[in-house]
Amino acid sequence: MLDICANADEALVDLALARGLISAPLAAELRVGRRGRSAAVALVEDGHLGAAEVRALRMIRRRTTIDNAMDGYQIISRLGVGGMSEVFRARDVVNGQIVAIKVISPRISGDRLFIDRFHREARAAAALNHPNIITCHGMGETKGKPYMVLEYMEGGDAGALAARAGGALTEPLAMRIALDCARGLEAVGAHGMVHRDIKPANIFLDGDFLTGKGLAKLADLGLAKGTAQDDQLTMAGVRVGSPGYMSPEQAAGRELDIRSDIYSLGASLYHLLAGHAPYTGKSPMEIILKGLREDPRPLSAVAPNVSARVVAIVTKCMARDPRRRYQQPSELQRELADASGETADETRRAGGVRERRDAPGPWQRLGASADRLAQRIADWWGRRVSDGTRDSEPDINSSATTIRS
């Protein structure tokens, strides 16, 4: 890890020397005797320069080199290691902010495909400035090793949270996660992109999420692509995504749009409620084939305590035909919010606290039911016209809502 910082440290020391802020003997000492610390940390901790001076030097360096993201960050611990990268917990020496630093694995640092994916993740995260998408603070490359500085999520990922809870989460908690992800997914779609790798392990949580104040955020945008551009990361015979969560069209290697991500979010909600992915198998190919050929076990069968309304939402998200899914994340948001006792218009964060409306009365519930019935009929008629076929009549009874005073 330290060799990634080497060029950045030398550049900072050289700049401080050129500006007359440190002496030549001190510069020579800082190049070899920092006791494992970065140059920025040593300058501040040993009293040679103030934090404001180091901050100014870093700003100057940012104008002249891309190798700046590691400069001024003190590595605290390793958070995890994957096949593509290592992630470290670090502290910004100037403002004390805790961040996550993702470094491409040396084993694949010469693989152009993985480097392109790494850069794509950083660019996508930087472009998608949204509360429900993890923020990228910067990126760079030293000695052929790309890295990026990301927002640190103290609560970990949703998959790990479910595992700690015994496999499955409570319905209210899983619905909060799904609703936040649908908000983030709306930003992805608004930028003409498809995430392509939504799963519980790529959904991260604020440290205070369990108290009702934090947010869930989409992460790992390395597979994200624009719907109107060639996908340079898709090669003949290679599927990208995570088996068990990818849509049938993604597993088949067909063109994708935001409805594929809606499927994956539904599959992730299935996992959080059932305690396992919709499809399992002994190998990735077995899981992919199941997703192509079979429907998953009904959520109502594997998680009987989940409400019928939520089961219906998951089922619609995971419809094999994209035309039968929610067509936009905003549509899914409204359903999730309504099912959670919220509305998309009234839900807001006030000091991080989620506000809930009063329970709707029978006439409000009747109006919502009528709206859903009208939408169902409109969807059926649209499919009938566009396909030139005569589907069976829509099942209007499935949209009915029991009204109780």
Compile the SSE list and pairings.
Blueprint: H1 2-18, H2 24-32, H3 39-45, H4 51-64, E1 73-81, E2 85-92, E3 98-104, H5 112-127, E4 136-142, E5 145-151, H6 158-164, H7 171-190, E6 193-194, E7 203-205, E8 216-218, E9 225-226, H8 248-251, H9 258-274, H10 284-293, H11 299-302, H12 308-317, H13 329-339, E10 349-350, E11 353-354, H14 362-387
Antiparallel strand pairs: 1-2, 2-3, 3-5, 4-5, 6-9, 7-8, 10-11
Q: In words, what does this structure look like?
A:
There is one protein chain. The chain is α+β, with helices and mostly antiparallel strands. Helices cover 42% and strands 13% of the residues. It has 14 helices and 11 strands. The chain has helices spanning 2-18, 24-32, 39-45, 51-64, 112-127, 158-164, 171-190, 248-251, 258-274, 284-293, 299-302, 308-317, 329-339, 362-387; strands at residues 73-81, 85-92, 98-104, 136-142, 145-151, 193-194, 203-205, 216-218, 225-226, 349-350, 353-354. A 5-stranded antiparallel β-sheet has the order 1-2-3-5-4, with helices on both faces. Helix 7 runs antiparallel to helix 9 (258-274) and helix 9 (258-274) runs antiparallel to helix 12. It is elongated and about 70 Å long. It starts with a helix and ends in an 18-residue tail after the last helix. Residues 1-6, 63-69, 227-239, 342-368 and 388-405 have low confidence and may be disordered.
Compose a concise summary of this entry.
With 405 residues, this protein is an alpha+beta fold. The protein has helices spanning 2-18, 24-32, 39-45, 51-64, 112-127, 158-164, 171-190, 248-251, 258-274, 284-293, 299-302, 308-317, 329-339, 362-387, and strands at residues 73-81, 85-92, 98-104, 136-142, 145-151, 193-194, 203-205, 216-218, 225-226, 349-350, 353-354.
